[in-house]
Amino acid sequence: MSVLPDPGATRAVLIGTSRYDHLEQLPAVSNNLTALAAALAEPFSWGLPPEHCVTLSNPTTAEMTMSAVRAAAEQARDTVLIYFAGHGLVDPENDLYLAMPQSRQQRVETGLSYRWLRQALLNGRAERCVVVLDCCYSGLALGAMGGPVDLADQASVEGTFLLAAAAETRTALAPPGEPFTAFTGELLNALQVGIPHGPELLEFGALYRHMRINLAAKGRPAPQARDRNTGAQLALGRNPAYLPATGSDPPNGKNHALERSWPDPSDIRTVKGFFKALSDVRVTSGLTHQLVSQRSGGRVSASTVSRLLNRESLPRTWQTTAAYLSACGVSDAQVAEWQAAWMRLLAETAIEAAVQDAPRPSQGRSPTLIERLAGRLSRRNGRS
């Protein structure tokens, strides 16, 4: 089942090296980072808040980069995405390392070994990991690696989806006159324009197939992909080119609504994720605020729909949210699942609020029930 991650429990680290002391310059990489960070913040994509998406442009040390990667892998409970654009190099033992500004060929100590990044992801808390590598090789690197397919084999991480560019030359990576590298430009275009006749959600598996066809048609290296578990079903956003079937639905649209890819309330982990998924329900339904109001039979007005979707704290009563979901076409069974998610989040936020207001336990005193519950919740959420 396709799924968009909970933005409150998701982290992204975007790494790019555009300036080099000893290798070819890649100025388009800087544009990659800016555009991809903006895309991940959009409601049609993951809707990540700025603090959940770290951008590292021309990081000077591997330690700086790994610190950000480890923090993201530890904080994320839903999905963690690691993106790198720049030169991809190989050491004498055919291991991949990511080039930093002062990197040199065959000098792994001057770059970031992919083995370190991979281990950080394996040690993290995230349920899903996505690795996107927009790397190029020099001719020597290609000869040492024995073929571009090895890149994906080395970069595999259990429980992830890996999407890797196989660019072999500077021209293939950053076509003259284009603002982005070939690989990332194709990825951004798919997010903005969509995949004609594609699925409702831009799953990574569908993105890979679409990019492979388009890049090959342009005479550019085809990307590679590796999928572990259900990584291919994770979506990067909604498909702007998606056209639902028409002509067979009854006027009330109920049959069509049942076929839509509704957000799954069981995937919601945070309050921010609750409202992102609630907003996605309306987008999935294809209804405007006014049409939602009309289909609710007057139970919710268009302005009430707007206020509900722009809240930052959970509503204390359930009736308005239930009426909104039903009006969008969500089944009664799934509305009940939404209510269960709402009640769970209410309980968690109440515990957090109680802990913040409660005095610290004095030395030697046994913690209260609230304090014990809060400790369990904090450990589950990955907070100290």
Automatic annotation (TrEMBL):
TM helices/strands, residue ranges? none
Single GO biological process annotation from the record:
proteolysis
Q: Where is this region: Disordered?
A: 233-263, 356-384
Q: Which GO terms describe its molecular function?
A: cysteine-type endopeptidase activity
- Which residue numbers delimit the Peptidase C14 caspase domain? 11-221
Q: What is the name listed in the Swiss-Prot or TrEMBL entry for this protein? A: Caspase family protein
Q: Give the organism, scientific name.
A: Streptomyces vinaceus
Q: What is the lineage of its organism?
A: Bacteria, Bacillati, Actinomycetota, Actinomycetes, Kitasatosporales
